[in-house]
Amino acid sequence: MTRNARLRIALLVVVLLAAGGLFAYWTWHQALEKANRADHQELVPVHTIDKPKDAYDVIVAGTDPEGVMAAVSAARNGLQVLLVDGRDREILGGLFTLGWLNSLDLNKSPVQPLGGPLTFLNKGLFQEWYDQIEGTSFDVNTAANVFNKMVSDEPNIDVMLKVRRMEPMLTGSTITGLRVEQADGTTVEIGTKALIDATQDADLAAAAGVPYTFGREDIGEPDARMAVTLVFKLKGVTQEIWESFGKHPQTYIDKMSVAGFPSAKEYPSSDPKQVKLRGLNIGRQNDDTILINAMHIYNIDPLDPESVKKGLEIGQREAPLIADYLKRTFKEFSKLTFAGTAPELYVRESRHIRGEYRLSMADLMENRDFPDAIAYGSYEVDIQSTGPDFSGAVAMNPQAYGVPFRSLVPLKVDGMLVVGRSASFDSLPHGSARVVPLGMATGEAAGAAAKLAIEKGISFRELAYSEPDIAELRNRLKAQGMDLDMPKIKTPDYARHPAYPGLLAAVSMSLTYGNYDNKQFDLDGFSNAMRYAYSLSGVKRVHKDKFAGNALDAVADIADPAKTMLTLEQAAYTMALTAGLDASRSEALGLLLEKGWIRQSTIDAIGDRQQLTNGDAFMLIRDLVELYVGVKYE
Prior knowledge:
By secondary structure, the protein is an alpha+beta fold.
């Protein structure tokens, strides 16, 4: 920008402030920020080694952003590091740079400065990386080059790409190294004091015998998991076209990102059971192209290479059809042309390891901190579509919550940490904790933890349960630039409600969603007989061994149960039938009280037994699950 241009802008700011105050300036500033002036970069080759050393202090498996941060953190803590990848990759950054997920799901602080740049939780290496890219979305070449530079600037890191196979080496239950089949077919055994599994699917943890759940298995849906996506590219984007996106109804824009076009979900899929479209997430690049994350592909098993190949083929066939639909349907896309698909699938969900602590929905609902928190999350609990009949939902929106170090420490295996989306998170809170910026923070923490554990001569498990050592780890992370101060939290309205204990149970079993504003729980709204039957069916899904009956039998004799107010008698009857008890409507409540499956205090708190609220219904469910099943959600 020339000196004269800067002077003109400064003069304009003065005029705006004098004439209309901050709002006029903010409007002008937002318009200015829609212009991306960054240059497109050529990829800088990654320097790789021909032969690894016999041993390293730390081996980091996986070159996704989480693995890159783990390697850099370990190296900056003075450790000798091998960063190794078992996919056919030539650049670093994985999901971001090869899956083309170039729009960031940001881990924002709950308090943002007025008119200033975004403030993020954790900061640290993520902030260092973010400050070198274009903004809320980025050019994938820029991102790859920044990852590459961060790694190449550390002389303690060796990089191995395109290995054919990786297998953890164990002595008893302790990791001692990694067996690697190299690109040329030869096998080497590499010793290590610590292994950080940053693969997308926790492949090495699973191979070492770490227990895990798959998809939504933990809430009774073993065959369900969030859809995979193939990102595709369009070209021909001018500044005028870019700004036109932001004028479309219910669509939001800055200089690098667009979110909206909700009616795109009406796209007539070539195979609606296999692939659909949702609203568009658009990330800008530094040439005339954009990347679009919107395609949902179902029934793909991320652990089966043939299934993954099938997913790519489905997406590659569908992407040109989607591009043509966008051109025909939205005038903003009419001049754009299809320019290809990402080299890799965007996989949201596969394994969820079992660690020393498993992050729960109650943790997010409570905005809970932990003494061993090594990162903080705040992204909404975004449950993407799991099939053609479920379009997805936002379970709730936390202000901030801690991620315990214990969630990185797998059960049964020592000498290993797992970072990223496959760490020890229940499948529902994983909808928030899976986002890559948070995963990058866990990677940074893992690298520093490796140094501390090696220095102290202790295992990661011992570190996890040592208060002074965890305090030391947190202090070291703060010293290297991480922000580990829990943000100030306001007590949410839902947490003040008398039915909050019931809400915790209902949310934890995926019986209700609060959406972005946490208001759709509707605790004071009236329930109905059908809704309650569906809720009890959901309880049975999660705790199927305890429920022999069918909740829908309780509404079989009601003409229109969805329009029939839920009474206490009907609620008790539905509970009894779901549990397999032989009871009439008039007998059910007394029987449940006799068995001790409902608290009298819960019944006494019901304002009107002839029209129960959603909060009343959730409290009854809470009692049944706690007192009969023996599970307490808190």
